[in-house]
From TrEMBL:
Alphabetical UniProt keywords: Glycosidase, Hydrolase
Function: Plays an important role in the degradation of dermatan and keratan sulfates.
Keyword Hydrolase found: yes
GO cellular component: extracellular space
Xref: InterPro entries: Beta-gal/glucu_dom_sf, Galactose-bd-like_sf, GH, Glyco_hydro_2, Glyco_hydro_2_cat, Glyco_hydro_2_CS, Ig-like_fold, Ig-like_GH2
Top-level taxon: Eukaryota
UniProt-listed Enzyme Commission number(s): 3.2.1.31
Annotated ranges, domain Glycoside hydrolase family 2 immunoglobulin-like beta-sandwich: 135-209
Molecular function GO labels: beta-glucuronidase activity; carbohydrate binding
GO terms (BP aspect): carbohydrate metabolic process; glucuronoside catabolic process
One Pfam entry name: Glyco_hydro_2
Protein name: Beta-glucuronidase
Length: 471
C-alpha cells in the first residue's frame, strides 16, 4: 500500500497514512518516484503490514470523508473504526454484509514511528510497576506513561519503581460497557548511556484493571463478569497452525459477531499478536499453558510474578472426590459432555446431569465454577428431523439444553461457559473423527453452522443485559 521511498529530514515522528494520501506534519520530504525501496547502510525499509484502523464512507454521495477532512486527524476521531489487516480485501474480512458489497471510498489509518539515522466511569488512581534489566550499570532509565491521545500522564526514573496515574481510565471488556471499553495506555521506556544519549526505546501497551473473585463470581474492576465464550485453536484452513493477520482479524470479527467476551487458548499460549488484539478489543483471555505434572509449580510461578492473577485449569474430572488438584487453583473449570460422550443421543438427560455435577463442585470447593468445554460433533450440511447425532440440528438442540441449565446457575455460582469449539480444526486420522474435530460453531474456513446463530442470539442478549445493569 505504501510503496514509496521518502527521505525525511527529521528524527522521530508520528505519521498518519490514509488510503489515498500521505501527510507529514511539518516534515520536509524529498520524493524519488523512480527508485524502488531497498535497504542499504543509509536507508531503512519499515514494514507497514498488519492491522490498520479502517472506516468505509457510507454516506450517500461517498464524499463525507473529504468534506469533513477525515485525513486531518486520527481516523478514530471521525467516527467508529474497526481493525483491518493490510494487505487484504476488506470485503471478505468482516461479518458485515453491507461492507462485503461496498463500493466507494474507504479510509485506512495507522500510526507508527519513523526513526532515521541522522466517557469517565469515576475517579480512579492506577499504579504501574516496572522492573527493567539493562546490560550496563551506568545506564539511565526513564519511564513515561502515555495515554491513548499520546499525552504523557506521568514520568519516572530508575530500573525499578512505580508511578501513580490519577483519574485513570480503566480497561473494560467490551461486553460490560457501552462506551470506553479496552482503554489502553503505553509504557514508554527509554534507556540512556553515561552521556545521556538514548540507546534503546521500548513501548509496552497495557491497561489498568483489577481482576478478583468471590466464592461465586469473577470480578473485573469490582464488577461481576460472566464469561460467555469459546475455546479456540490456532488453526485455519490451508495455513494450519500459524499466524497471518487476515485470519486474526476475521476471527475477532466473528467473535464480536457472536458476542464472545472471553476465550480460552486451548491448549497452548497463543501468538502475542492475538493477545494484543484481545487487549485492544476488550476480550478476556484464559491463557493456557501445558502443565501436566507441574500445576503446583506453574501456579507458584504465576503468583510470584503477579499475585493478583487468577489461575485455573481445564479438568475432565468432574468428581471432586477423585480429583487432587482443583483445591490448588482459584477457579474451578471443568469439561462436561453429557449428551455426547456420555448418554450419546439422549439430550433429555442433560437437566438431570448438569446441575448436580456443577453444584457438587461448588459445594466441595466453595469457588466459582466455569464450564471450559461442552458441545457435540457436527458434520456441516447434515440435516435430520428429528435431530440425530452429527447433524447440525443435534448440535443446536444440545446447546439449547445446556443453556437452559446454565441460566438457572449463572446467578448463583456459575461464572462462565465456553463452547468446544469456536471452529472445526484438523487432527490426526482416527476412525471416530470425520476429517478432524467438527465440534466447531464454524467450519474450518469460518462459515457458520446452525448453532452459531443460536449462540449469537444468546450471547448478544447477555451483553445487552450486562450493559444495562452495569451502566
Amino acid at each position: 500500500m505504501v510503496d514509496r521511498l521518502f527521505r525525511m529530514k527529521t528524527k522521530s515522528i508520528f505519521v498518519r497514512l490514509p488510503l489515498l494520501f500521505i501527510f507529514f506534519d511539518a516534515v520536509r520530504c524529498d520524493y524519488f518516484p523512480t527508485l524502488y525501496p531497498r535497504e542499504s547502510e543509509t536507508r531503512e525499509i519499515k514494514e507497514l503490514n498488519g492491522l490498520w484502523n479502517f472506516r468505509a464512507d457510507m454516506s450517500v454521495n461517498r464524499s463525507q470523508g473529504f468534506e469533513e477532512k477525515w485525513f486531518m486527524s486520527r481516523l478514530e476521531k471521525t467516527g467508529p473504526v474497526i481493525p483491518m489487516p493490510v494487505p487484504s480485501s476488506y470485503n471478505d474480512v468482516t461479518q458485515d454484509k453491507s461492507l462485503r458489497d461496498f463500493t466507494g471510498w474507504v479510509w485506512y489509518d495507522k500510526e507508527f514511528f519513523c526513526h532515521y539515522h541522522g466517557k469517565d466511569r469515576g475517579s480512579y488512581t492506577g499504579t504501574v510497576y516496572w522492573m527493567i534489566t539493562t546490560n550496563s550499570e551506568e545506564a539511565k532509565v526513564q519511564v513515561e506513561v502515555v495515554d491513548a491521545d499520546s499525552n504523557t500522564v506521568v514520568m519516572g526514573e530508575g530500573i525499578k519503581g512505580q508511578a501513580s496515574v490519577s483519574n485513570v481510565k480503566l480497561w473494560w471488556p467490551y461486553s460490560m460497557v457501552k462506551t470506553g471499553a479496552a482503554y489502553m495506555y503505553v509504557l514508554k521506556v527509554t534507556v540512556k548511556d553515561s552521556t545521556s544519549a538514548s540507546t534503546d526505546i521500548y513501548r509496552q501497551p497495557f491497561g489498568f484493571r483489577t481482576v478478583n473473585k468471590t466464592n461465586t463470581q469473577l470480578l473485573i474492576n469490582n464488577k461481576p463478569f460472566y464469561c460467555h465464550g469459546v475455546a479456540k485453536h490456532e488453526d485455519y484452513d490451508l495455513r494450519g497452525k500459524g499466524l497471518d493477520m487476515v485470519s486474526v482479524a476475521k476471527d475477532f470479527n466473528i467473535l464480536k459477531w457472536l458476542g464472545v467476551n472471553c476465550f480460552r487458548t486451548s491448549h497452548y499460549p497463543y501468538a502475542e499478536e492475538i493477545m494484543d488484539q484481545a487487549d485492544q478489543q476488550g476480550i478476556v483471555v484464559i491463557d493456557e499453558s501445558p502443565a501436566i505434572g507441574l500445576l503446583q509449580q506453574v501456579y507458584n510461578l504465576t503468583k510470584a510474578l503477579d499475585p493478583t492473577r487468577l489461575v485455573t485449569f481445564a479438568s475432565s474430572n468432574s468428581n471432586p472426590l477423585s480429583d487432587h488438584v482443583m483445591n490448588i487453583v482459584d477457579v474451578v473449570m471443568v469439561n462436561i459432555y453429557f449428551g455426547w460422550y456420555q448418554d450419546t443421543g439422549y439430550l433429555q438427560t442433560i437437566p438431570y446431569q448438569v446441575p448436580p455435577t456443577l453444584e457438587g463442585l461448588y459445594k466441595h470447593y466453595n469457588k466459582p465454577v466455569m464450564v471450559s468445554e461442552y458441545g457435540a460433533e457436527t458434520l456441516t450440511g447434515l440435516h435430520t428431523s428429528p435431530s440425530f447425532t452429527f447433524s447440525e440440528e443435534y448440535q443446536k438442540d444440545l446447546l439449547i439444553q445446556y443453556h437452559q441449565e446454565y441460566d438457572k446457575l449463572r446467578h448463583e455460582y456459575l461464572a462462565g461457559e465456553m463452547i468446544w469449539n469456536f471452529a472445526d480444526f484438523l487432527i490426526d486420522q482416527k476412525t471416530n473423527w470425520a476429517y478432524g474435530c467438527n465440534k466447531g460453531l464454524f467450519t474450518r474456513h469460518r462459515q457458520p453452522k446452525m448453532a452459531a446463530f443460536t449462540v449469537r442470539e444468546r450471547y448478544q442478549k447477555m451483553i445487552n443485559e450486562t450493559q444495562k445493569y452495569q451502566n
